[in-house]
Amino acid sequence: MHLKNRLQLLLPSVLSCLSVFLSQFALLLVPLYFPFLSLLFMLAISGALLLAGAVFGKFCRRLLGISGSAVAFVFFTVLFVWGVYISVIREGISPVKNVIINTEFALLVVGLYRIHHSDPGFVTTHRSSLDRADPNTHSAEGMLSESNGLPQKQCSKEIERVRYCQICNAYIKGFDHHCPAFGNCIGQSNYLLFLVLLIGFIIVEVSYVQCVSQFIVIRQNILAIGLEMNISNNLPVSTMLFSILQVPWQVVFLVWHIYCIFGNIKTDEWINWKKYPEFQFVVQPLSGHPFEVVRFKNPYDRGISWNVKEFLGY
Known about the structure:
By secondary structure, this protein is mainly α. It has twelve helices and six strands. A two-stranded antiparallel sheet has the order 1-2. The protein has a two-stranded antiparallel sheet with strand order 3-4. It is elongated and about 75 Å long.
């Protein structure tokens, strides 16, 4: 029984590792068989392959009744790209730049481990009051009535903006969202680490693309690499395509979270504001309109300067 449980825990990681190799192999076919295409067309084909692979993989997992691990997929992808750099690209890179990019990859792996095992802000005290609250309508105001005699200021400070994560089945202070790629909730205690890690991914991918570009120049051009029909020469190109495709959505994600910091709002609150009474502003009906109108109003927004200071803990 113990062995069976271990296999059940190991299977998603093995499946994710296999998915990484299959997806990278699919991308390898692009520069290998279409070396005459421009970078833009290569990116379009690569994006279509990744999307088709994700849909097909999801279908197969549902059909077989098994699931993969997004955390393991991200981890093995980082290791795969790092391995390509060390085994193929490193020889054409200057020693200083080589130290820098290897340090970036190492810090990225450490960051993935740290955020996966970090405490996002789990609420463990006064759990009886939390358990009696309705997760779908949970808010600080609704919980004050269940403070069991605690001073109102103390209770309000402790349960301020505590939200419920259905995936973790836990209450998180400052809950923003559950990140499947990092396998953890993002809340008040690890939000800064999440942003640093997101920036780290962008920096590593941009640095990697720059190194591959330098590698391609050394090997003359993409066309010559493609004609060689050499897997080791095409791996840098395929992993570069993968890295370029990751950067745009990560930048958009980063910009969104910077906006959330400036506005002092969480992703969960923005999406599900109708669940939280403090975000609901009731507009009284005008003449000829019999119904009240509920609009969004952020009670936590006190200006960019104050919002940033609160995020930084000042």
